[in-house]
Specification:
The structure holds two protein chains of two kinds. By secondary structure, chain A is an alpha+beta fold. Chain A is built from five helices and nine strands, in the order H-E-E-E-H-E-H-E-H-E-E-E-H-E. The longest helix of chain A has 18 residues. In chain B, strands 1-4-3-2-6-7 form a six-stranded mixed beta sheet. In chain B, helix 1 packs across helix 4. Classes of the chains: A alpha+beta, B alpha/beta.
Amino acid sequence: MKRTALAVMLLMSTLAFAAEVEVGAKAPAFALRNAVDGTNVRFTPGDGKLSVVVFTCNQCPFAKAFEQRIADLGRDYAKRGVVFYAIDSNDDAAYPIESAAEMKSRAAAGHYPYPYLKDGDSHVARAYGARVTPHIFVVDGSGTVRYRGYVDDSAKTDERKHEGLRNALDALLAGKPVEVTATRAFGCSIKFKG
Amino acid sequence: MPTLLAALFLVTAAPQIAEIHAPAEVLHAFRPASRVRVVSVWATWCAPCVAEIGDVQAISDHFRDKGIEVIGVSLDDMIPGQRAATKASLAHFLELRHIRFRNVYYTGSGDALADEFHFDGAIPVTLVFDENGHELMRNEGPLDRKWFMQQLETLIAKRRAAK
């Protein structure tokens, strides 16, 4: 029975969460509406640009704890040609605070230097295997995932020992291998639609 | 002054919540008499965790006299803030929700905890161990109270039959 219980739980886990896109795999493309200005934003992996796909949201305190950190990184690295895409994949029918209107307000208040895209049916989160907010995927110019996981190992500046996102971007911009390619993203679980 | 009085009330009314820093300390927090040990990893900042905390209390109530103990491991400390204030806020939350199962306040790295208990970083996660620290079952994600209680009943029956 113990094995049966474990097997059932593993099956439930498999059904609940798609696996994260592996480092070295091709990143999924997407086209989503930018909640900030209503335009459609398309990400075509292999467009020659080093890109960062950030799964985040409005309500999660853990995502909020990283909000300005990510915005600062987005601002810094935009100067070096890195493109950030912030995506909210939470079901806004169940959680109205995740609506496009609320996203627009949040992006304005946080001075987001990148588009804030609504993934209303959560299909992009499923395609990437994103589980939590914040959850990061770094994609190189050829469209290959080169880093996935957390922004940093701690939301507390004084306890931060590893800067996963910054280290990955610095390495890739310098043409060097990324030392730590996969970390464990912590945070609020994504509230998938359906 | 009212704010000061309110803060004082929170501190004085708060039940004692032990702090632990090392993941291995979690299983040591259980009473030796507990034959089956349920660890609920959660935080007040996690909406599904808050939604299920009443169910976890019900599970604790139902199995308390059957040798099963539930301990909550709060990850509230992962959010930046004053530790004393966060702990007081956690204690206040537990009191408001009438949560009586024991909670510990985890101050170590989330990554280390996830390594120790082999979960992927998303909470809630509920783990069940025997008295020797061997994992018997787990639930990753929101808890289905009825299903989980059935699993625990089956575990108890199985262990009783094995004796």
